[in-house]
Amino acid sequence: MNILVNNVMKREENGKLLDCERVLWINKEKDAVITISIINDSALPQFKSLSNMENELDSGQVIKLQYDPYAKFMVPEDKLSKNEIKIRDHAWACIKEIVEIEPNIYDSKERYRMIKELCDRTGKGKKFIYKYLRYYWMGGKKENALLPRFRKCGGLGKPKNPKQKMGRSRLTVTVDPGLSGVLVDEETRRIFDDFIRNVYLKVNRRDSVKFTYVEMLKKRFGVETKMVRGIEIPIILPDHKVPSIAQLRYHIRTRYTRRKRMVAREGKVAFDRDFRPLLGSETRRATGPGQIFEIDATVADVYLISTDNVDQIIGRPVVYIVVDVWTHMVVGLYIGFEGPSWLGVTMAVENTVVNKVEFCAEYGVEITDDEWPCHHMPQHFYADRGEMESKKADSLAKALGIKLKNAPPYRADLKGIVEQQFRTLNLTLQPWMPGAVKKEYRKRGGPDYVLDAKLTINDFTKMVIEMILHRNNYHYMEHYPLDKALSKDNIKPIPRELWNWGMQRDHFLHEVHPDIVRLNVLEEAKATVSSEGIQFEGMYYGCDELVELGWFVQGKSTKAVIAFDRRNMNHIYIKRRDGKEFMKCYLLDKSSRFQDLTLEEVGMKRFEEKLQKSLYQSTRNQQDVDLSTRLEKIKKDAEVRVNAERDHSLTKTERKADIRTNRKEERDKLRKLQSFELNKANSSSDYGVVMAEDDVENETSFTPRSKLGLLSRIRKEG
């Protein structure tokens, strides 16, 4: 028969009950089972052999109960009183942090350490913790198992109002027994709760108990007022007739748990960040290399100088680091002046897939593939809200199948691994960085660290690369949580050894060509496709592949989604196969004035062109008026000349007759007048050709006669 968790086994001998055990945990691989007696009030979990228990069950030595003796505690929530729920929830809040750590909690040594830390943190005693642990385990590992056992004891639901003051007596009793103080009854408790909620537990106020107590006396225990220097001051009852501050402290301590007080006074976000239990391990969020990459940015604590001019201080650079959670290996880096922004994230993500040997060679650092073997994409990226929460990151997730996760607001502690890298960066490199920011106060007349700047961005990047190589290859992580498999193979907690060990087993890494990664981290936009090309922000692009596909055939224009790098607008990219392929488009010749410009520079240049056009347009109106006036004069001169010379006796038909012949005669005339004569000034002397004066007159005075006039005269003559 199978044995399952929460089964209850009964042992009998000669009809006498020997023991009754509940199964708490099973591990078939290790042949282990953990049980606890439910009839022994001081019982603790015990390790046993699973196979032996199964044999005993098969042989009848132990009997599996068909009912649960603790089923009576499985009461619906609406049937429980407020006090029962309060006690149960309080008990659960105390032990829930450790009962979930299985099977460690069942080991006596680890359990003792956990309970001791829990007692120190909560102020509870060991007996209190053990009591509710037994309740929880014996009751089937359910919260309702923590309900109070004595439901019929005392006055159920009735407040306890003693008839005499409880607690330590006041010193004033030795003088007068009537000065013992007041009883804390239900009305007083109501007053306490009112001021605790509205004063003491106000978020981000952090008012003390003393301040709360004085406010309570001033507003609830005043009997009259008096005027002092123009201010109305309340007069309270004598000290022995009002609750003491010790009674208020006791009420806060007994009715409000420390967690409730911290959450109310600090806020839920601050509590989760600064006061939450730290029983887990951030490293164990991942189970192998590449499952989670953490990415974050910081402003480095150093001032840099320009590469071209050593006298120019250019400020502090932005550093992006990408870290693998499981190995703590730095897998990506970007140092520059972008961001923190999506463009900075783009550079860091792109760096995770590039060959690190080539990357380091750009800065004069020679390494081998084994020293930095990271050129992969992960299963998850874990980042701050902002860059990875924008629409620009959607393409990265869809095309490459990467899941993006973001930490809650103000929870940088959830990315502790990458945050620790920044801390190490600033502390380790500071002694070797002239111009490093000093956190301590400067003395008057002391040196200014800004003026000490001597490193360029290439120098600083080279330093960071050297530090990363050292940490990846030699940093021994003393507090790394090695699991049994790593310990069995004698793997030292060094990032590179963990990476190599994980790569030979289960990992979540996959290789992607850097161009595909770059394509999917670039910005996207819609562009217009027409016969003139792909038009985007006033620039025109095209490529031979799109011409063959018929994108630029004349017709109705369409829209297309493009990817572009705003830092250089020489090219745009058309995505294919959901971002796994692309076509590269070039800037056409008619847009060559935008060559090698950024998108911002293109926008500025287009603005300047529009401004020049607008300024010219303001002077063009006068030129249009001048042209219109000149054309009008030519028109009027022609009308006057024609009206003076026209033969008004001709009919419309006569005027339109023989236009083709007239056109030929006029053309022949113009040909003679417009014919070329080279070296015209010396033509007479060179050839000795002299025309007679009469011939010149005849030549210049010859005018062809109109055939229309001849026809008109013949008609008149009959």
Key terms for this structure?
24 helices, 20 strands, 718 residues, Mu transposase C-terminal domain-containing protein, alpha+beta, 40% helix, 6-stranded antiparallel barrel, 5-stranded antiparallel β-sheet
Topology, element by element:
Blueprint: E1 8-13, E2 16-27, E3 32-37, E4 46-49, H1 50-59, E5 62-64, H2 82-99, H3 108-122, H4 126-138, H5 186-200, H6 209-220, E6 222-228, E7 231-236, H7 245-255, H8 258-266, H9 268-274, E8 292-299, E9 304-305, E10 313-315, E11 318-324, E12 330-336, H10 342-353, H11 356-361, E13 380-383, H12 394-400, E14 403-406, H13 416-429, H14 457-474, H15 484-488, H16 495-503, H17 514-521, E15 523-530, E16 533-536, E17 539-542, H18 544-548, E18 558-564, E19 571-576, E20 581-587, H19 599-645, H20 652-656, H21 659-674, H22 683-687, H23 693-701, H24 707-717
Parallel strand pairs: 8-13, 13-14
Antiparallel strand pairs: 1-2, 1-5, 2-3, 3-4, 6-7, 8-11, 9-10, 11-12, 15-16, 15-18, 16-17, 17-20, 18-19, 19-20
Helix pairs in contact: 5-6, 8-9, 10-17
What can you see in these coordinates?
This protein has 718 residues and is of the alpha+beta class. The protein has a six-stranded antiparallel beta barrel. Strand 11 (318-324) and strand 12 form a beta hairpin. The N and C termini lie far apart (142 Å). This is Mu transposase C-terminal domain-containing protein. It comes from Paenibacillus mesotrionivorans.
